[in-house]
Amino acid sequence: MKISKRDLILDSIISAYLDDNVPIGSNELCSRMQISIPASTIRVYFKKLSEEGAIRQLHVSGGRIPTVSIMQKYWRSRLKFDKKLKIEDLNNLSMIVQDFEIYCMVFTSNSEILKEVLNYNDRFIILVFGDDEIILKFNDKIFNVLINLVGITLEELEKITMQIGFMELRTKIAELKRSKIQFLANEVVAYKIFKDERFRILLDPTFAVKFNKNIIFSPEFDSGFMGVKRDINFIGKDAVMICAGSIYEDYEKFFNTIMEVA
User: Residue 2: what pLDDT?
Assistant: First the structure.
């Protein structure tokens, strides 16, 4: 498919900003592009793209950067989740994460299946998930609800507890998921995102339920930030990876590097 000059120039602006994180001018962009387009023509498209709200100028005499809205659109179209990330080397993953200003958490158990709901002498309800169990105080009504949910995943059960307000089970699920954290790095980035105590929410695996898709922006994050959730295989186990940071970090390069090295 033939790409228009407008899209080619915009993609080049985005790529340049992801590489260097500094505004780029028409002359600099002209020298970086593989296809020869005169700087005068690029300046015309700069004006058009600015009027569209696709790029903006930080200073009157400075270069351009892509806007937040265009970066949201860019990541929705660029990031693919059809291939499952496979991570075998924890040390390599740690080094990769340190090279990028991206917060990262990996936890297992999200897809565990509720296999049994047991009544223990009308004193406790025992929820059996493969190798894990959750024990609740017995309540006849709650037991009758839960016994009809056998076969759903832990994540689906967590969403149901949020809908019906079952705080005891929601708390126990959160405790179980916290015990399954396998990897946590760049927590300082989580603080930079929120700049207050809200950053602790991002350090908890229960944050995963906020994702109705693989990528989220506002209202979960302030403008200029984003989160990515993807299913992975972590040292032989099914797991979930949650990443977050500035919308101007190179998430595509980040995931490709993990795929190649980790």
Answer: 63
- pLDDT at position 58, please? 78
Boundaries of domain holding 143: 80-261
At position 138, the amino acid (one-letter code) is: F
The runs of H, that is alpha helices, within 65-153 are 68-78, 90-99, 140-147
d(CA 160, CA 164): 6
Whole-number Å distance between alpha carbons of 23 and 210:
33
Please state whether 207 falls in left (phi above 0), alpha (psi between -120 and 50) or beta: alpha
Domain boundary among 39, 66, 93: 66
Asked if pLDDT for residue 35 goes beyond 80, the answer is no
User: Which domain CATH number covers 55?
Assistant: 1.10.10.10
The pLDDT of residue 62 is 74
CA distance 105 to 240: 8
Q: What is the chain's Cα-based Rg?
A: 23
Single pTM value for the model: 0.87
